[in-house]
Amino acid sequence: MAISVAPKPPATEPAELIWQDGIPESTRFGDVYFNRNDGLSETRYVFIEPNNLCERFEKLPDHGHFVIGETGFGSGLSFLTAWADWKRATEDHKHSVLHFVSFERYPLTRDELKRALLRSPELAPVSDQLIDQYPPLMKGVHRLVFDSGRVRLTLFFGELQDGLDQLPFAADAWFLDGFDPQYNPDMWSDEVIQSVRDHSLPGTTFSTFTAVGRVRRALEAAGFEVTKQPGFGRKREMLAGAVRNDARLSNVAAAPTDPVAIIGAGIAGTLLARNLAERGVPVLLIDKAANAGSAASGNAQGALYAKLGIEYNAQAELAATALSFSQRYYRPWEGDFWHPTGLLQLATTAKEAERQRKFCERNQYPEGFLTPVSAAKASLLAGIEIPLEGLWFPKSGWLEPAKACERLSQHPLITTQFNVEVRDIERLKEGWSLQSAHHPSLKVSRLVIACGHQTAEIAPVTGKLRLKPIRGQVTYLPEASVNPPATVICGSKYLNPVGQGQATIGATFDIRNDNPEVTAEGHQENLDELLRMLPNLPVTQAPAAEDLRGRVAFRCTTHDYQPVAGELRTESGDKVEGAYLFTGLGSKGLVWGPLLAEYLADKLTGQPACLPIHLTRRIDTLRLYPKREF
Fold it and tell me: In 96-186, which ranges are E strands?
């Protein structure tokens, strides 16, 4: 018998299947994923109807949200059935959100998922979207967003108990799914059942296909009222029920819908504004410039790029999760401000080559996410001669950041106030007063400060926040002066494909330079590094350094070069009620922005978080104070 070897992180072990007449069956657990005769009818009978979902969906207020938890994602059939019923029941609810939180230890591949769902063609309008967005098989949390934000799937790949321990949410209904308890007892342990209860609200319902006595007793011991019901088809009985009325209350708050003020209309501020607006939350977007994307987010081109660590620790996990999410997030804007050309990360020095060798030796990422390539393969992908091996990110590319900020800020629920420089923020009895030099004060109940390194100047706290600006100069090469690559190329510098008649190279990293003007020295540094990286790249027709065009921006970073997103805290650790920070994204704002905007919007609306607890510590605002490391 073959011995399966666990993959290196962050890869997760996929399901091991055999197919019988188009029905997937797990060889690990000796059980089918759904009923052989009618999987969709079984799903409705076992999960949708006992939880009374259609009626509960219809009664949900327009700005409400409903959370379903599931203990085994499998083929996604239960999620898709709930989504389809949600669409029918909430056609008149523009801003209600269905959250579906599901866990899977051995996920199907995309091809297997597609094959399994062929059995339910009536679900094609939703299943095609799931297949299209299905994440790479990497351990951890994946957030998928559908229907312009009205449906959110939080998918955890890994051990069920680990996911329940790490994800903060409270369910309104539970699908206790998974293989038969006699084949997969870990999924039905007392500890798992207690965790399910801990993630439940008063009145939370559940249903499950099983009627095993051990499961029933564990549910009752955890605080559920349990009833036996007739099972589906040949199944004699199943269980359903709800949390007992005397069970302890959850501390999950209702989602507020009062307006949120966001100070800063760069990529962070506009991503968050758009995310909140699509959830039905009005936003006041404020910036001292005349339009969105005028500061660090104003460059003509920017690469969607993350440098992943040799060791797969929390920092690498957060970066990989953010990159995967951003690749999905920008897809609707392909051909507008998003250009998914792929990206090459080259080993430009002996040190970097050794780093990449160790990286590949110690990690296993899915090929659809990244793969090592030879110099010959890199040359083929880029369409120009590449003398170096590297890593290929097929779903990355480049954006037009200023254009992205402009597009993202255009929404009926986003009100913009430009040419308004907030100089001071004062605490009121209820909410905040935003003071500026030449405009009346603005009174708001909640605010997010997302104005880069200037965040430290106006944040309403007494302690010094460790934020710093880093000057970066990019150089624009006219298209006629360079043989441009077909993909983004990153190394000691980056080179983008041509956009609007020019290719962007850069950027300098000037820690102690506060000169806001473009310099010939900055252009020469960019050109010299580019030619060291790509010595055979012809740039002989390029103008002299002093005649080149470019741009200077000051990126905001933190002392540990990790981003910040969350509730503002005092130096003693107390939360500053109604105030949040979103800053410190450095040169990776295009990667960090979408996921952290999703996370902040989750917090601002009281909805389930897209990040596990151990990753939220990486971005906690308390890190900004000295001697408050995490």
Answer: 97-104, 140-146, 151-157, 171-175
Beta bridge partners of 338: 334, 399
Say whether pLDDT at 1 is over 50: no
Instruction: Note whether 455 and 581 are within 8 A (CB).
Output: yes
**Amino acid identity, residue 412?**
P
pLDDT digits over 512-535, tens only?
Answer: 899 999 999 999 999 999 989 998
- What CA–CA distance (Å, rounded) separates 534 from 613? 42
**For 556, phi and psi rounded to 5 degrees?**
-95, 130
Q: Which amino acid is at 45?
A: Y
Question: Given CA atoms 395, 399, 401, 404 in this order, what sign does their dihedral have?
Answer: negative
What's the one-letter identity of residue 254? A
Note whether 268 and 585 are within 8 A (CB): yes
pLDDT of amino acid 536: 85
Is 3.40.50.150 the CATH number for 17-243? yes
pLDDT of residue 254: 43
Q: What would you report as the CA-atom Rg of the chain, rounded to the nearest whole angstrom?
A: 26
pLDDT of residue 453: 87
Cα–Cα distance measured from residue 531 to residue 200, given in angstroms and rounded to the nearest whole number: 59
What are the boundaries of each domain within the chain?
A: 17-243, 260-295+402-466+560-624, 343-394+469-558
pLDDT higher than threshold 60 for residue 630 = no
Q: How far apart are CA 586 and CA 563, in angstroms?
A: 7
Residue 60 CB neighbour total at 10 angstroms: 18
In this structure, CATH architecture of domain 343-394+469-558: 2-Layer Sandwich (3.30)
Residue 535 to residue 55: CA distance in whole angstroms? 66
Sign of CA dihedral 183, 101, 15, 33: positive
What local confidence, expressed as pLDDT, does residue 455 receive?
94
pLDDT at residue number 175: 98
Burial of 385 (0-12, 13-18, 19+ CB in 10 A): middle
If phi > 0 it is left, if psi is from -120 to 50 it is alpha, else beta; for residue 200 that is beta
pLDDT at 570: 95
Alpha-carbon distance of 304 to 595, in angstroms, equals 13
- Give me the count of residues in the chain: 630
- Residue by residue, DSSP assigns 348-360 as -SHHHHHHHHHHH
- The CATH class of 260-295+402-466+560-624 is alpha beta
Are 339 and 398 a contacting pair, CB within 8 Å?
A: yes
Given phi > 0 = left and psi -120 to 50 = alpha, else beta, which region is 506?
left
Please check the confidence at residue 255 and state whether its pLDDT lies above 70: no
User: What is the rounded distance in angstroms from the CA atom of residue 145 to the CA atom of residue 130?
Assistant: 10
Residues 6+ apart with CB under 8 A from 375: 386, 387, 388, 389
